[in-house]
Design a protein that fits this description.
Chain lengths: 319, 319
Amino acid sequence: MTEIIDCFGHIMPQSVYEKLKEIHPTEAIAAHDEPYFYDVDQRLADMDEFGIDKQVLTLASPPSWLGADPEAALPVVRHANEEIRRIADEHPDRFIPVGTLPFLSGEYLDEFERCIDGLDMAGIQIFSNVDGAPLDSDEFEPFYDAVESRGVPLWMHPQLADYGVTGDSTFYAKVFGWLLDTSVALSRLVFSGVMDRHPDLNLIAHHMCAMVPHFSARIETFYEAREFYPHTDWAELSEPVESYFKRFYGDTVLNGSVSALHCGYEFFGAEHILFGSDYPYGPDHGRLWLGDTESIREMDLTEDESEKILGGNLRSLIA
Amino acid sequence: MTEIIDCFGHIMPQSVYEKLKEIHPTEAIAAHDEPYFYDVDQRLADMDEFGIDKQVLTLASPPSWLGADPEAALPVVRHANEEIRRIADEHPDRFIPVGTLPFLSGEYLDEFERCIDGLDMAGIQIFSNVDGAPLDSDEFEPFYDAVESRGVPLWMHPQLADYGVTGDSTFYAKVFGWLLDTSVALSRLVFSGVMDRHPDLNLIAHHMCAMVPHFSARIETFYEAREFYPHTDWAELSEPVESYFKRFYGDTVLNGSVSALHCGYEFFGAEHILFGSDYPYGPDHGRLWLGDTESIREMDLTEDESEKILGGNLRSLIA
């Protein structure tokens, strides 16, 4: 019997929310003061109903960290990581705890080590930009060294920023801007040479790596034509561009679209796709997508491929 | 024998470039002062080599209009439309002239009428935003009325704007930002009710309508959950959301990716896909994608479906 693992669930422990409000009292995080963000019993009941054996717990609410002061945020981050560890300890067969680091240098490097070595977490959640700074900034190189040396995967969540989309609606920024930011972040990691310098870096990105599988040919074309674009400062890569992008892992958070899943499969193959629900976000407080293993079954894969996507790949990544 | 029509070629007549420089002397348009942007004999030879019978001519260089003064731009736009008409007249069996309107109100409405009634052009190129203003602004409603009453299609080209992507590279804004702006523009036309109010509006968008086919389930989910998002002011649509998006037409400018073409086909069906080359942009001065009818042939469609994509659909649209 296949063990089904949801690779990208979100949680916001109530005490974390209270502390977060103090350092970042914006409207953007208010939605997370709802029981379905922290009610563990309800979560377990939902998982049971949809046959989910285990769930990765990452901290909810990526907007929280934008504009936060790193020093003021540090104790909140530390508390959040401890809380997620505690919840996982209370249900060791059901939850896989992942730490969160909204900043990737300074004392946050110590917190990384504490998450992995002290709290024995399975990996680390980062965001697609660090308060506006791209993930290929030189100052983050020690972080990638540390991640690589510990052999743990990164979970990358998009982060709302001001995308300057036409008009002022936050709606469009969220629907499309998150996909943009993920795509830019992954491309920067490739084209700056981060992925080249860190061959053992494993990274799981939301929404099947956003625009990467569908527009891979476009991305490659621009890289090949980079000499025509001023202001680009791109690494001369030692391998074909596509091979770096294929090293990323994509989750299945595509809102039930089997054709989009197929597109991801054509690009990544079954070995680099992980079932994820985005719980408790989405319709019916995340319950709809918790049941979205159905879309994977509709993909008409071999039993072995399905097993990898539903849990096997994640087990290998965190082994 | 199928008549093959390239639905989205670009041209920059030399005299237009000279006038454009005067009103918008930026680095962004300098690249267009190259023979392959205006050399008609070379263009015809390239079309012959790759078996392209006809090509739609739209004016190149969408960045040109950002920040331009509408009044100063008007005579340049008028000249550009006349020049494209003239080139088409010199080769009536090879080129299909399309007018361009970077602004959609005031005297530009008169220019629209002149393009269609006076210059007998096949339709109009617009951009995904009007100098930053979204396409669903109320002031553009008379334009959509006029377009609908004339029964001509619109060609929508993305337009570079400041997307605020992390870092300062124009590269990312172009690779991904254009896709974002197209996706936002199409969604705004649907969700504002423009497509509902104008059931006969036909619109062809570059890059197979960008993120729409791949992320259609995501787009729908957000619309269904719109009550949770403040600052959205969306029309109550009379038909299912998807049906409006399926009314758009996508071109095949996907850089040779057959899997991305398949995704477009699954969403739009063969009736709403048009072969386009993006000539003379792209590798080898556009010659590579001029030969990209090959990707369509690799899609394994019926003869009838291929014929529609390669030319039939466009003939119907401009009949």
